[in-house]
Each structure stands twice: as structure tokens, then as C-alpha cells.
Amino acid sequence: MNTTDLLAIVNEYDAPIYIYDAQKIENQYNRLIKAFKKVERLKINYAVKALSNISILKLFKYYGAGLDTVSIQEVQLGLSAGFKAKDIIYTPNGVSLQEIEEVAQLGCQINIDNLSVLEQFGSRNPGIPVCLRINPHVMAGGNRNISVGHIDSKFGISIHQMPHVLRIVSNTNMHINGIHMHTGSDILDIDVFLHAAEILFNTAKQFTNLDFLDFGSGFKVPYTENDIETNIEELGKKLSKRFNAFQLEYGKPLTLAFEPGKFLVSEAGYFLARVNTVKQTTSTVFAAVDSGFNHFIRPMFYQSFHDIINLSNENGNERFYSVVGYVCETDTFASNRRIKEIKEGDILCFKNAGAYCFSMSSNYNSRYKPAEVLWINNKAFLIRERETLNDLLQKQCKVEIPDLVTELN
Question: Where is the Orn/DAP/Arg decarboxylase 2 C-terminal domain (predicted)?
């Protein structure tokens, strides 16, 4: 996409707005497939939580992907998008046994990361295949909030608790058909990932009838022009070789599964916002946009970096700005960032806005969630309308307060 395309979409659908480039999504998907082309049975399950618009899910169904889900609602979205239940893996954390059983009855692959839940589910549903999510106790990821494989993580069953797992499996006659791990996001050190993979392989040897091994994801994408990223090609070469060797050791063919989210959609996303005010203080120039952490919380929540381009003045002189929002708390997108000179009314473009941006948006301050547009075959398609006041009021119950007060008195 180019500047002309982005500004044309704003002119048609207004700002703030999310825009997704389908070609970039397809390129990332094909890049992953190509990196693991030497693995005969490869399954890419898109992580729905990254971006759950049903049109995006349908796009991945068209590519041939499965889905990785963490809630029954994501499962239901996947089914609504046309996915078969067998192509959906459900990896919850801290949910009720009732929800897990409801998803299991839909026919999805269940992935359990809790000894207590494993024993309860196995006792009640011994005939339903289950995948185990292990915690390899490997620290990986670019931020404590997104590093989920370390020893103090709430995710996964510790590899040191495997004797307990084996006892539960034996007592309940459960069928364990997969082993899963996820070390964290923004992984750069391939050797660390491969080390965790060896732990998964060693765990897999303790189960005789597996169908797949799921290595999670967490691949880092570049956030600036010269930023470093996970070397998918090198990882594909090394892990494919080791996986194929393990299959021979194991004695039966296995599926190698991944569940990428950010890797597939982050770079495809653009968030466009209009500048409301430019405010000079004694030390800072603030550019305040018609948005805030209600629409785009990652910079505040994860301290994530998102490149910001002034689409309205790409050839101007650079100045230093702190880009902030309109929420009545500190909601700073960028501090003292070099950006082409900004004027009120300019359109700013936040890059890498495809993953965990709209999906983490809210109605805080009673603001409306923005529209979403899919750019495909050089055309823009509205895939979510901008919210209105009716959307905020739709589920609220109308109570006549004077009558209620009188009744209570």
C-alpha cells in the first residue's frame, strides 16, 4: 500500500481507522510454509487473538490454515468463518471445566495446561483426545508480559511434573495425541528456541500414540526499517532437520504445528489517526490525535515501538514530537519522536498495527471503536463499521430511576 491508497481510505471512511493489507498477510504465510517445506506434515494455526475480524479468519481459511483459539467465543467465530472443528485447537488458561467440555463437544482439539483440569477432564471424558501444554522453563520473549515459558509463568504444566501427568493419564486411560509449548513472543535467539524444542522432544518420547507436536510461535517482526527479526529461514532449516530425525526415532509420522499471530498480521496493519491539536509546552511539543489507548494500547501496555509517519507531509522537515491521545490519563504513543512537521488536521500512520491492536481496543471514555478496512487486490473493503451511540446503548438495560427510588422507599 502507498500513501495515496491510505489517504483515500481515510477520505472515504474517516479516521481513526485500521487498515490491513491482505498481500502482506499472504506473503508472511507463504514465507513460513516455504521455511518448513522439508516437513511433510506442517500445520499453521493462526492465533485468533491477534486479530479476530471474521473477514481475516476467512482469509486464513482460504490460505489453508487452521486456527489457534483461547476462548469458546474465538472457537465460535472460527466456526462462523467456515472452519471445521477439527482444524481448530483450543488452548485456554484459567477457564472453567464447563467451557473446556463445551468446546470438546464441538469437536475441537483440546489443549490442557493444568494438572487438576487434566485429571477432571480425563475422568469425565476419557475418550476425547487431549494435547498437553508443557512449560519448558525456558525464558524467551521481548517483554516479561509476553514471556510465558519461564519457571514463574502461569502457563503450561511444568516438565518437572511429568510423573504426575503420567499417573493421571494411566488412571484415566486418556489419549494424549499432542504435546505443545509456547515460550513467549518476540523470540530472536533461535538456539534458545531449539533448546526448548529438545525439551518438547524428550517429553514426547514418554507418550506412544501422538499425532502432532505444537511448537507455539512468538516470532519477532521488524518494527523499523533496519530492525532485527526472527530468522524464520534459519529456524526452518534447523528445526525441520531435527523434527524429521525425531520422527524416525519416534517410529511414526507426526505433524509439526505452529500458531503464529503477530508474525502473520502485524506488518500488514496500519492505524490512521487525525491530529486534533499541536501543543507547545516549556519543554515538549505534543501532537494530540483523535484516539488513545482505548483504540491502541500496545505502546502503553507493552512499551511497544510503532513507527509513526505523517502521511499529510511526507516531504517536510523533521521535528521532535510526543504523540499523545485524548484519554484523560497518560496515553503516550511516542515520546520525543522525529516526525515530519505536524499540523492540526494531518493524518498520522502508525505501522505494525495488525496484531493485538484492534483486538485489545475498548470503549473506555465511552468512545466508539474505529472501523476496519481490508485492502485486497488494490481495493478497499469495509470489514467493520465504525461504532455509534446505538452500539454503546444496545445491551444496557433501561431503568426508570424515579420509579425505582419510589419503589425502594
Answer: 20-354
Tell me if 338 is assigned to a ligand binding site. no
HEC profile of the chain: CCHHHHHHHHHHHCCCEEEEEHHHHHHHHHHHHHHCCCCCCEEEEEEHHHCCCHHHHHHHHHHCCEEEECCHHHHHHHHHCCCCHHHEEECCCCCCHHHHHHHHHHCCEEEECCHHHHHHHHHHCCCCCEEEEEECCCCCCCCHHHECCCCCCCCCEEHHHHHHHHHHHHHHCCCEEEEECCCECCECCHHHHHHHHHHHHHHHCCCCCCCEEECCCCECCCCCCCCCCCCHHHHHHHHHHHHHHHHHHHCCCCEEEECCCHHHHCCCEEEEEEEEEEEECCCCEEEEECCCCCCCCHHHHCCCCCCEEEHHHCCCCEEEEEEECCCCCCCEEEEEEEEECCCCCCEEEECCCCCCCHHHCCCHHHCCCCEEEEEECCEEEEEECCCCHHHHHCCCCCCCHHHHHHHHC
Is 90 a known ligand-binding residue? no
Q: Mean pLDDT across the chain, nearest whole number?
A: 93
Which homologous superfamily does the CATH classification assign to the domain defined by 269-393? Lyase, Ornithine Decarboxylase; Chain A, domain 1 (2.40.37.10)
Average pLDDT over every residue of 13-17: 97
**Catalytic residue of the set 328, 349, 357, 397:** 328
The answer to whether 298 is annotated as binding is yes
133 is in an annotated binding site: no
pLDDT at 8 over 90: yes
User: Does the active-site annotation cover 397?
Assistant: no
25-29, 38-42, 55-59, 399-403: least confident range: 399-403
pTM for the full predicted model: 0.93
- Tell whether residue 242 is among the known ligand binding residues: no
Q: What is the mean pLDDT of residues 375-395?
A: 96
Does the domain at residues 36-260 carry the CATH identifier 3.30.360.10?
no
Q: Can 36-260 and 269-393 be said to share one CATH topology?
A: no
Task: Decide if pLDDT at 145 tops 80.
Answer: no
